[in-house]
Amino acid sequence: MAEAITKGKIVLLAEDDKFLSTAMGDKLVREGFTVIRTMSGVEAVEQAKAEHPDLILLDIIMPQKTGFEVLSELRLDETTRNIPVIILSNLGQEADIKRARDLGAIDYLVKSDVEMKTVVAKIKETLARKTI
Amino acid sequence: MKDEENRLNAILSSMAEGLVAIDNDRKVILMNQAAGILLRTAPPEATGRDVREILMFSREGKELAFEEVPIERAMTERNIISTSLLDNLSVRAKNGQLFPVAMMVAPLLTGGEGDVSGAIILFRDITKEREIDQAKTELVSLASHQLRTPLSAINWYAEMLIGQEVGTLTDKQREYLQNLADANHRMIDLVNSLLNVSRIDLGTFAIEPTPIDFASIGRSVLAELEPQVVAKHLKVTVNHDPNLPSVSADPKLVRIIFQNLLSNAVKYTPPQGEVKLSISLMSPNLIITISDTGYGIPAAAQGKMFTKLFRADNIKAKEAEGTGLGLYIVKSILDVSGGRIEFDSLEGKGTTFRVFMPLSGMKKRSGDKGLT
């Protein structure tokens, strides 16, 4: 059942720290996802529009464009508007969480407080809900 | 006489701070040049006018209610009122521009009865101070973000290795990796505590009260401590009146209070010991009592328990973990939000902390950041 959820599903990972990107990217591949790795906000928007991933895992503090800007842009585009976005950031203030939620993020996880298995579980949960 | 007047005028016009003197009817009787420049109003133009038309106060964009204006407070309370950066006061100049101010208002008391016959207002533009304060806050927030990034990486790689996702480990390798992960969690806690302390010291943390159930927050914190409780075979009991009223408090801050007091009780109680949490109602307060049968606090250290970075000698020898920041954070939160904390302790017997939270709830405070 779990495989059915991950098989053939594309997750776009927007993370500019190469150690975190490698860790999360590799983990998702082992879980059976197809992973598109992007290292900046600009690249994340481009890839989201070109590849239409099933879900986006989005950092906030990134070069060129912040995660907030990425979220706003995705919401403006017909083809990317409905892609579920989970924020994975080390900013953990209420104001940041509220801002991301207002921009349509479906979940907000703080990297230093969350285990990778929890992130994976959230992704699967979201995709399962989407499929229903 | 003329010389005297000239000298006085020279002093007033050389002052860098704005000075305005008013009579009992709030009419301006004197204004120096610096005040004129700050308010964009020529001193002769201001004389005789109501001070409320000249000095208009606001806080966060909203005009201040009449009784909150420092001039009114000084005159009705017959006290010197001073405000600083933390009061977040601004004044609108004649050209409409707002600038942040720090000020001091002293009532003019005359006659044997101490009748108020006016007030002296001294103020200055604190735009620079505010900018520096802002920069400091941003630096702390940025630094903590930067520190958390590599710590998150260590966490995640350790998690994958311990989970044997990329190969099997010997028991020793697993044990060492677990130690590495545990130490890293302590580092994250330390970064969070330091960040909280800097926000407390800067006076920038927000308090957002909402009706909450203290007992359920206490229970959920205890559930997080379950692994340590089990490892040390501690007996934990929770007692509370089933009909406790819900009190308005900031849930994040209440959680921080519980986390610090309960994790201390668990950490500083030897195996097989006891930790008790009870919540009771004793009007006008809700009383949270956390007691343990732990190492206790030596009498000589008791006066310093809420001091930043202080750790008592007896526990330093027994427990390497601990930052010396927890109780400082707890006390600071309670001081600012209207609560209070006290304790009694006997070395070798145990400690009891009691938190008093007024049933009227925590005082709301706006701020740009919350504690984490």
Question: SSE layout and pairings?
Answer:
The complex is a heterodimer of chains A (132) and B (372).
Chain A (H helix, E strand, L loop, with lengths): L1 H5 L3 E5 L3 H13 L3 E5 L2 H11 L3 E4 L8 H10 L8 E5 L4 H9 L4 E4 L5 H16 L1
Helix pairs in contact in A: 3-4
Chain B lengths: L1 H13 L3 E6 L4 E4 L1 H7 L3 H4 L4 H4 L1 E4 L2 E2 L6 H8 L3 E3 L5 E4 L5 E13 L4 E11 L1 H36 L8 H32 L7 E3 L1 H11 L1 H6 L3 E6 L6 E3 L1 H17 L6 E9 L2 E8 L20 H6 L7 H12 L2 E7 L3 E9 L14
Parallel strand pairs in B: 10-12
Antiparallel strand pairs in B: 1-2, 1-8, 3-4, 3-6, 5-7, 6-7, 7-8, 9-11, 12-13, 13-15, 14-15
Helix pairs in contact in B: 6-7, 7-12, 8-10, 10-12
Structure keywords:
heterodimer, A: 132 residues, alpha/beta, Rossmann fold, five-stranded parallel sheet, globular, B: 372 residues, Beta-Lactamase, Helix Hairpins, Heat Shock Protein 90, 3 domains, eight-stranded antiparallel sheet, 12 helices, 15 strands, 25% strand, elongated
